[in-house]
Design brief:
single chain; alpha+beta; elongated
Length: about 120
């Protein structure tokens, strides 16, 4: 029964608070690491899906290749600010022509058919 008093004195002196704090910190760290692993796995899945898609032919003006003519001029309508407030933030917009002068996005590859190579020897 002598050990009971030592345990009792340990807990009364604040020993339990230290044990509880250590356990709480360990659980918090474990949770943060688990969430990081889940986020990394989600990001890897997202990257794998994105890697399977062909590149979108989108110009620097964020418009698709279909909105540009053969010379590269963009024919998409955009919102152009025409009025600003005291903080120099636009408050009114009008429809206007995109000022992109040339398509600079990726060039789509044409479909190519090639015979299978076989060793006939």
């Amino acid at each position: 029964m002598d050990w009971f008093w030592w345990v009792f004195i340990f807990f009364m002196a604040g020993g339990f608070a230290k044990v509880a704090d250590t356990a709480r910190t360990a659980l918090r760290t474990r949770h943060e690491r688990k969430m990081e692993r889940l986020e990394t796995a989600r990001q890897e899945r997202h990257e794998l899906v994105a890697a399977q898609k062909p590149p979108e032919p989108v110009c620097g003006c964020t418009h698709h290749l279909a909105k540009h003519d053969k010379k590269g001029k963009c024919h998409e309508l955009v919102q152009v600010p025409v009025a600003w407030d005291a903080d120099h933030k636009p408050v009114q917009y009008e429809a206007g022509q995109c000022t992109c002068q040339q398509y600079v996005g990726p060039q789509p590859l044409s479909q190519v058919y090639a015979e299978d190579l076989t060793d006939l020897a």
